[in-house]
């Protein structure tokens, strides 16, 4: 239950409103704040007294606070007392539980991925197990948050799961004891060739630098002469971890990042405080459009010091820093306080939330307004709009049939079926479905209900709508019919046309049942365009040096 009283609300509102007025006279600013607080208090009192139904003050206040903060940016957020533990998990990567990712599919709760060396693994839970009860509480109609709260608890406390496993008629009761779980920032590291090491950095929670450092040292010990650091889809996290991870690859005392905001006393320059692990080993950093925040700091440092080559897609463009401030009743405010600037002097923030359109929407900074900066070796780079890679690799489009198969749980279900019929499979790097096995999957799909609309079909329907609106349809309807016959999808033919994509996704889903997350990563190597591009660049010293403008 959210515990919000008038005093809490009135204490919280000024902090958020301070950024909403542009008055030169401080007295005028505080008059406007006091006036609006009085209006808000009067409004709430009138609603509470006269609204036709009973008003829940906690809910109404939470909605009001959320709407107010949302008008600033997506990252400034109110964290009520009952959500503090989830927030701590996000920043520390630690929680009390069974050590398994669970998720809802088609209204049912499934084990999606057990963590290595967790109570879930030791108890024999498998990917694909359906959880029907937790401590005899039926999970029917329970949300993901409901299930999460039931699974988590103090380390050392017992919890009992009732599960259904594919191919077994009877439910299974699984007793477990909760433990302190630490989610790995580096779920996988290994050798992709005889001399190229690979580190998959998924988050920047507490301890990330230790995991990356240990992985880097271990890979060098195994013969790695070059490193691929995978930051794709990494949403970021703790600024301190980004600074220290950057420090692994650059010299001590160099500037990593600086922050500048309204409160000048909080402005800070972060430098590399520790001796590096290796300032010479060639590095390729993989980025995507969902690499953000701390991941962009590391990417930017590597690029600005010409320390390695960035490969993939332009990053997200989140150059804002948040801190948490304590509020009453054990709640907190996560508030944007500054922008960060990487060594070349650029800020990579893509959206200017201080300038909104009349409808309240915001747009990305256009490329024409991006300002040029230079890296250490003189390469031209730009601010705003994220960090552009040195080698761009177009992201593969996922066909609509694959979206549909995933949304309908059909890949997931067939992987359960396959696992039930095969006690073991080859290693993740070696496992491939034969053509005959793929055709068995296609045959199995014949009785399943799934459909989809392709982008081409949506475009044709838009064309028809515009043609009718502008009275051209009667003249071109025969051509439209012919176009529809040629371009509208057929599920059977699409399963062959997109066989490679569907087969790869199914193989990864199957591998997860036997080798968990590490196996899924290894299984993806053969189909990974960005990783292949990184290996090519690292294996071509002349091209690597040219990209970095090194003589």
Automatic annotation (TrEMBL):
It comes from the Bacteria. Residues 87-152 form the PDZ domain. Pfam families: PDZ_2, Peptidase_S41. InterPro entries: ClpP/crotonase-like_dom_sf, PDZ, PDZ_sf, Peptidase_S41A, Tail-specific_protease. Residues 1-24 form the signal peptide. Keywords: Coiled coil, Hydrolase, Protease, Serine protease, Signal. Residues 466-508 form a coiled coil. GO terms for cellular component: outer membrane-bounded periplasmic space. GO terms for biological process: proteolysis; signal transduction. One of its GO terms (molecular function) is serine-type peptidase activity. PANTHER family: CARBOXY-TERMINAL PROCESSING PROTEASE CTPA, TAIL-SPECIFIC PROTEASE. Belongs to the peptidase S41A family. This is S41 family peptidase. It comes from Xanthocytophaga agilis. The lineage of its organism: Bacteria, Pseudomonadati, Bacteroidota, Cytophagia, Cytophagales.
């Amino acid at each position: 239950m959210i515990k919000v009283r008038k005093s809490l609300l009135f204490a919280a509102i000024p902090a958020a409103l301070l950024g909403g007025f542009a008055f030169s006279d401080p007295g005028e600013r505080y008059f406007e704040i006091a006036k609006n607080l009085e209006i808000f208090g009067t409004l709430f009192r009138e609603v509470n007294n006269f609204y036709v139904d009973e008003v829940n003050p906690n809910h109404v206040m939470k909605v009001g606070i959320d709407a107010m903060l949302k008008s600033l940016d997506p990252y400034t957020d109110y964290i009520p007392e009952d959500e503090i533990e989830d927030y701590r998990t996000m920043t520390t990567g630690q929680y009390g539980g069974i050590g398994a990712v669970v998720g809802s599919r088609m209204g049912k709760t499934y084990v999606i991925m057990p963590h290595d060396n967790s109570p879930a693994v030791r108890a024999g839970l498998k990917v694909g197990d359906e959880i029907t009860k937790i401590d005899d509480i039926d999970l029917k109609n329970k949300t993901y948050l409901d299930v999460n709260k039931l699974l988590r608890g103090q380390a050392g406390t017992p919890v009992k799961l009732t599960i259904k496993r594919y191919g077994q008629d009877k439910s299974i009761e699984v007793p477990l004891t909760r433990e302190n779980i630490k989610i790995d920032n580096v779920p996988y590291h290994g050798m992709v060739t005889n001399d190229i090491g690979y580190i998959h950095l998924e988050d920047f929670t507490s301890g990330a630098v230790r995991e990356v450092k240990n992985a880097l040292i271990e890979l060098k010990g195994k013969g790695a002469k070059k490193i691929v650091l995978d930051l794709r889809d990494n949403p970021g996290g703790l600024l301190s971890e980004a600074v220290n991870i950057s420090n692994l690859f650059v010299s001590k005392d160099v500037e990593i990042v600086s922050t500048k905001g309204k409160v000048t006393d909080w402005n800070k320059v972060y430098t590399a405080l520790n001796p590096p692990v290796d300032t010479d080993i060639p590095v390729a950093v993989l980025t995507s459009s969902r690499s953000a925040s701390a991941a962009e700091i590391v990417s930017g440092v590597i690029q600005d010091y010409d320390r390695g080559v960035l490969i993939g897609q332009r990053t997200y463009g989140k150059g804002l820093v948040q801190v948490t401030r304590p509020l009453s009743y054990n709640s907190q405010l996560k508030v944007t306080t500054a922008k960060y600037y990487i060594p070349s002097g650029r800020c990579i923030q893509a959206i200017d939330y201080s300038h909104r359109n009349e409808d309240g929407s915001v747009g990305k900074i256009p490329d024409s307004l991006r300002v040029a900066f230079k890296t250490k070796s003189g390469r031209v780079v730009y601010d705003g709009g994220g960090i552009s890679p040195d080698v761009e690799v177009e992201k593969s489009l996922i066909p609509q049939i694959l979206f549909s198969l995933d949304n309908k749980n059909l890949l997931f279900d067939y992987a359960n079926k396959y696992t039930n019929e095969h006690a073991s499979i080859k290693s993740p790097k070696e496992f491939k479905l034969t053509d005959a096995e793929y055709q068995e999957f296609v045959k199995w799909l014949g009785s399943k209900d799934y459909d989809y609309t392709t982008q081409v079909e949506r475009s044709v329907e838009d064309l028809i709508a515009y043609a009718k609106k502008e009275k051209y349809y009667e003249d071109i309807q025969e051509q439209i019919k012919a176009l529809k016959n040629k371009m509208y999808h057929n599920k059977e033919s699409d399963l062959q046309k997109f066989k490679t994509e569907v087969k790869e996704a199914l193989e990864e889903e199957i591998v997860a049942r036997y080798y968990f997350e590490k196996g899924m990563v290894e299984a993806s190597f053969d189909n990974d365009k960005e990783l292949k591009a990184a290996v090519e660049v690292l294996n071509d010293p002349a091209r690597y040096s040219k990209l970095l403008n090194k003589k």
